[in-house]
């Protein structure tokens, strides 16, 4: 028996549809074969799914199971495929109806059957809306984030058993509705520009830079307030529009850096990496590239304290992102482009020779 459900993979900041195909051969010895270029976390999903099905009071199918994650040439990573694999197995076991082609399933399973948070839900929900899916089933904690995408039903799932009851029309799950409030005050910044006394000429220069989106380099002796002025600068930048807030939220969602209980980033980012950071940590990188500090500072501010302490190579790789407002990272598997429209603020002590 063959079953198909749909899930989603992350490619940079974008989503890609993944088809989870499951074939059951009841005449063979019990075993599970997982194919489709999975990483270690995906390979381990078979044991999590087995325990979650048993502990949810459901019947695990007996026989040889082949699970294929298509397309086979796209790398699959992370635990987000637990829920779609479980649903596909329950379809071949006859416990879930098979007509689920218009939905996406996302979520990591605990051994007790509860559904855990996964990263990148906003990009995945946006893909579902673009591809014309009716709805997306996501972990309950991720529903506020997924519901930021309009035109698609978002179903919060707390446990595997609850999802099966919903699919069997026994205990329906109501779609989650987002309540966006961009009119209220954004979260407080670490420092407020209006609370700083003195340094009027520096404050005036920073006001001009904030108004025009210019980059700034401050030079002065230790203790003169360079770091405090830089940390207070986001408080005078214009407020994020909805489209800007969604851009920033998507980056932080993929990087799994959204604060708990904050589905939408409403304040401009402020990133202050240490001078020992590598160029890959600054611009992004890894075997499968992830956003770096300059992308995490998108629509916000990147502060380089003690700027001369940064290595020459790290500073040189900033040239192209500062000009193009994007950064392209190339690897053997392909190239990915991340946004990097940020305001650069540097601080340094005077040269000892002066």
Specify the helix fraction band.
25-40%
CATH class of the largest domain: Alpha Beta
Task: Summarize the main sheet.
Answer: 4 strands, mixed
Question: SSE order, as H and E?
Answer: EEEHHEHEEEHEHEHHEHHEHEEHEHHEEE
Q: In which order are the strands of the major sheet placed?
A: 1-2-4-3
Total tally of structural domains? 2
Mean pLDDT: 92
Radius of gyration: 24 Å
Q: Could you list the spans in which at least 5 consecutive residues all have pLDDT below 50?
A: none
Question: Structural class, please?
Answer: alpha/beta
| Distance N to C terminus | 80 Å
How much of the sequence is in beta strands?
15-25%
Number of helices: 13
Shape: elongated
Number of strands: 17
What does this structure look like?
With 354 residues, this protein is an alpha/beta fold. It has two domains: 2-167, 2-Layer Sandwich (Ribosomal Protein S5, domain 2), CATH 3.30.230.10; 193-348, Rossmann fold (3-Layer(aba) Sandwich), CATH 3.40.50. The protein contains 13 helices and 17 strands. The protein has a four-stranded mixed beta sheet with strand order 1-2-4-3. Helix 2 crosses helix 3. The longest helix is centred in the middle third of the chain and has 13 residues, at 200-212.
């Amino acid at each position: 028996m063959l079953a198909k459900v749909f899930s989603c993979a992350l490619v940079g900041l974008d989503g890609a549809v993944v088809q989870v195909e499951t074939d059951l051969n009841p005449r063979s010895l019990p075993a599970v074969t997982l194919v489709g270029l999975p990483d270690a976390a995906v390979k381990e999903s078979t044991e999590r799914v087995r325990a979650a099905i048993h502990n949810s009071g459901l019947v695990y199918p007996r026989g040889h199971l082949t699970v294929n994650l298509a397309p086979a040439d796209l790398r699959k990573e992370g635990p987000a495929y637990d829920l779609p694999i479980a649903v596909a197995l329950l379809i071949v076991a006859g416990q879930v109806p098979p007509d689920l082609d218009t939905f996406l399933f996302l979520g990591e399973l605990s051994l007790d059957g509860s559904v855990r948070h996964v990263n990148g839900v906003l990009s995945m929900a946006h893909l579902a809306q673009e591809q014309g899916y009716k709805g997306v089933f996501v972990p309950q904690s991720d529903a506020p984030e997924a519901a930021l995408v309009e035109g698609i039903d978002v179903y919060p799932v707390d446990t595997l058993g609850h999802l099966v009851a919903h699919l069997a029309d026994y205990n329906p799950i109501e779609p989650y509705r987002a309540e966006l409030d961009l009119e209220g005050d954004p979260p407080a910044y670490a420092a407020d520009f209006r609370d700083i006394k003195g340094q009027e000429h520096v404050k005036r220069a920073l006001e001009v830079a904030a108004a025009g989106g210019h980059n700034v380099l401050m030079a002065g002796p230790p203790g003169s307030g360079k770091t405090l002025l830089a940390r207070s600068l986001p408080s005078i930048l214009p407020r994020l529009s909805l489209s800007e807030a969604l851009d920033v939220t998507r980056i932080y969602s993929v990087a799994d850096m959204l604060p708990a209980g904050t589905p939408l980033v409403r304040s401009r980012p402020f990133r202050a990496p240490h001078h020992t950071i590598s160029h890959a940590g600054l611009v992004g990188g890894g075997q499968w590239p992830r956003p770096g500090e300059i992308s995490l500072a998108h629509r916000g501010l990147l502060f380089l304290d003690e700027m001369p302490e940064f290595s020459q190579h790290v500073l040189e790789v900033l040239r192209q992102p500062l000009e193009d407002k994007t950064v392209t990272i190339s690897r053997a598997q392909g190239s990915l482009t991340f946004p990097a429209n940020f305001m650069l603020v540097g601080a340094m002590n005077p040269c000892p020779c002066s």
